[in-house]
Amino acid sequence: MGKLIYAANISLDGFLEDETGSFDWSVPDQDVHAFWNEHERHIGTSLYGRGMYETMRVWESDDWLTDEPPVVREYATLWRATDKIVYSSSLTDVSTARTTIEPTFEPEAVRRLKETSSSDLSIGGAGIAAEAFRHGLVDECVLLLCPVLVGGGKPALPRGVRLDLELLDHRRFANGVIYVRHAVRNPA
Fold first, then answer.
1. Which residues on neighbouring strands pair with residue 144, listed in sequence order?
2. Over the stretch 166-188, which tens digit does the pLDDT of each residue have?
3. What sign does the dihedral 59-64-68-74 (CA atoms) show?
4. Contact 146, 11 (CB under 8 A)
């Protein structure tokens, strides 16, 4: 059985992006990128909302990767190797391989996917992750806390949801980013 892992770079005040939609403050250095590469190695399927999918699909193209460091190119390879499910009622076509569209988020279908998966699953995108949290589907949170306050924007964690967590791991990177990994102790 696979675990569903919510993973995100977030500001210290808890946002995925600022009020203008920017997340340039969370661009990882090589050490943080290597961390994400190791994380992705254990993911078999990524679940995305439409917005997060549209952000992540840049990894499908090699055009911009030519002059990037090996750690960045490796992430693209790892991302392409995962299956992707995009939850969207407005998206009709995808531009990446190994990708399917589901018009609605069905909690029971995600439960079955977890039960039958031989590897872990990740979930990305604030809206879709909030649904997974509300339905007790998230097993772990992997958060990289970036040393920045953005003052507002898109919250990284759902409002109105109470979950008790257990710290499983943590680490400080040289650039000031703090990694924390928590297990969800009381899923709904």
1. 9, 179
2. 999 999 999 999 999 999 986 55
3. positive
4. yes
Whole-structure pTM value: 0.94
How many angstroms from the chain centroid is the CA of residue 151?
A: 22
pLDDT of residue 63: 85
Quote the CA–CA distance of 136 and 164 in Å, as a whole number: 12
As a whole number of Å, the end-to-end CA separation of the chain is: 18
Which portions of the chain are predicted below pLDDT 70? 186-188
Q: Which helix (H) or strand (E) holds 102?
A: strand 99-102
How confident is the model at residue 22, as a pLDDT?
92
Q: What is the DSSP letter of 115?
A: H
Tokens at 119, concatenated = 């590897």
Closest CA to 132 of 154, 108, 115, 149: 108
Which pLDDT belongs to residue 187? 57
| DSSP per-residue codes, 68-79 | S-HHHHHHHHHH
CA distances to 11, 43, 65, 138, 165 from 114, in Å = 29, 12, 32, 10, 20
- Residues linked to residue 165 through DSSP beta bridges, in sequence order: 184
In the chain, where the domains are located: 4-184
Architecture label for domain 4-184: 3-Layer(aba) Sandwich (3.40)
